[in-house]
Amino acid sequence: MRRALLFLNDLWRRFLKSRSFWPAGALVALLAFNLLFTKGFGVIEVRDGRLYGSAIDILHRGSIVMLLSVGMTLVIATAGIDLSVGSVMAMAGTVAALLLTSTPPHSAAAAGAVALAVALAAGLWNGVLVAFLRLQPIVATLILLVAGRGIAQLLSEGQRVRFNRPDFEFLGSGSWLGLPFTVFIVAFVVAATLLVTRKTTAGLTIEAVGSNERASRLSGIRPWLVKLLVYGFCGLCAGIAGLIYTADIKQGDPLRCGEYVELDAILAVVIGGTPFSGGRANVLGSILGALIMQTLTTTILTRGVPVEYTLVVKAVVVIAVCLLQSEQFRSILVGGASLPREKTRDGDVPPTMRTRDGDIPPTGGGAS
Amino acid sequence: MVECGPAPAQRPILEMHGITKRFPGVLALDGVDFSMRRGEVHALMGENGAGKSTLIKVLTGVYPRDAGEIVFDGQAIAPRSPLEAQHLGISTIYQEVNLVPHLSVAENIFLGRQPGRAWWIDWRAIHEKAGALLAGFGLRLDVGRSLASYPVAIQQMVAIARAVDISAKLLIMDEPTSSLDEGEVARLFDIIRTLKAKGVAVLFITHFLDQAFAIADRLTVLRNGALVGTYETAKLTRLELIGHMLGKDPAAVAAMEREKASPAAGAGKPLLEAKGLGRRGAVEPLDLTVREGEVLGLAGLLGSGRTEVARLLFGVDRATSGNVRVGGVAVKLRSPRAAVRLGIGFCPEDRKSDGILPDLSVRENIVLAVQRRLARCGIVSRARQLEVAEKFIRLLGIVVSGPEQPARTLSGGNQQKVILARWLAMSPRLLILDEPTRGIDVGAKAEVERLVEELSRDGMAVVFISSELEEVVRRSHRVAVLRDRRKVAELTGGEIDEQAIMHIIAGGEADA
Q1: pTM of full prediction above 0.90
Q2: Is the predicted ipTM greater than 0.85, yes or no?
Q3: Closest chain A residue to B167 measured between Cα atoms?
């Protein structure tokens, strides 16, 4: 008993120090608020052997941003960014829809596989621009943000591509073991990513490139290969998300699929505590970040707050979580407004006392 | 301006007394005194880590000083930023021109201080003034063109013109000639003489001895953060200057007792043999051999090609000529990765930009290179990593709170040891150490030196590069001397002697 308590205590201490503490805390707070004040939030019902309820809804609807944030976390850990994930979603979704509706129609597996190959290629394309042509990641991926959606529109001749294929739709709206199938997809991708980044050499290699590319190269790492693979992986994640979205609405929509979703994915990573400067990856944190945002959206919908408030409320919560992660800000909150003081030295002349040509009043003595 | 005192020209324009600056773990400046006369060209000399840049940065307000005082133009000053120093009349020209390349020459000259009313820019006046200003320096440029369209030398002169126009009384030039050819250097020197005639004091930082002797009235030498002395250029010989820079009184060298590296080594098989290895524009083709259990010292001044040779041997830069054999097998050193696979390790000179991973923990920094080897079926266990990290933390005496401490919070000496640990964990056959003792305190220096000896005794081949000639002499079994990107001599055993090396570095033949 005592031992178990000690173990729990240790676990709690480690959690307190962990980088996921603040996003997890924010998510718990949000959920607690909902359980207490939002009617019917905690209710989970079983209908037709399937679970229904707000919590399940959050997991299902959040799956797209969760998937995107996994790839985005690794990209940001290499001090990069990928703006093109929404367009890659649209490309993958449209390609899949076209293959499903072609004559003769392709199998769901073939359509999905080709769409994922397209998404992977798109990600690798970003990787080539960043790693070999040395474009800034924001510029390199901006190209595909614009071009990707354009390609999707060209492929479908600007039309939405409707299909009626229950086998494919299972990806987006099917359920298994009582849970939405999307939950399993996300769980698989997250588990695989965690396994690779935490247990193999990949995690440290990715973070090393983000922390100091020159030093990594001098340690025998190939930064170009790391970047290529990371952007490729990010594209692949976007491809899976695109398939889910397309399967869910039963049509390939080159315009709406993945629209503005790159911003949500980046926000999820930021909320999750992965620094934008690179060198650190917190995949679990990003998942928490994505869940926080989806919980917010669901909360707003179920509480009957006008939908127009969604974006503003999201922004406020994002700012709050980011501030909470800052040690400086927390010390201000706790320690009573003690801003980090800059040391002032004797003999420093206040700016107001300086004149244009550099003469200073004789009061400005030298430092002791 | 305060005009007191009968002869202001006699009073120094700048006096710095007892300047002390401490960084975590390093005393960068130790009570340095420095002064400059009006209209004087003064060269500041010293090897890497001597404290030249720190002194300049304290003077221009980049770093606050820990102690000491600065009197400039009769006033005690304590600038808090380069801009404030500029307002006081102290301008700095860097090797990398710090102007805005995409703006026009005229815009650069008047950036932030456009003449005329605040909201209205009189382009014609600006262009005329800029043209006139540059003409004063013998430069005829189209001031409407972007700065970037002119060569670096011209850009530098524009920067000088701007600084002088902002009423600089003291102009600091930090290695201005490193990227200039001979003609451009001559032109820059003309401009320096013009400035001198106008009464502007010029502080000139360089590692080119010839240039210092050609242009400077006086020379000040720093070493290890301390003042060695200030000398009249006319009364100093090159050999004396090198002696001061490297910390050796040439006359006293012979009298010094020498602690030599154990002579038993050097009998090992050749590990790395380079023939005609060179890189166009960086290193003239040279032959080098390093044997197992041998320490090969590379001696030479900064810019002599020491670091460039190390980079060739590790595949950071690709050689344009020559061939290399490692362990008797011909190899291509195409990349650091290729070198690592051959069992070569490299501790770079600039550990901040090339060595340390600041965001990652000490453990991660140590296992970075070796982690692939630690992996079993692709999985690296945390326990194995900790085992390796803790072993080297103990072995090298790295001062940390624990293996998970972020590397950026360590002192310079401890960061250096972490990088050493990264390579030692690989148990390399050849370890290249480029200035491993630079910028770390005396105790850590001694430990690094001791380590070098131990490693070579265990059969590792070591290439040892240091600005501290004493260290090279003490630790090397063989010394290759570089000058002007060329190998000019190779000394073995009893020939390894500070005075002999200094003679060769200074351009004389080895003493007969």
Answers
A1: no
A2: no
A3: A357
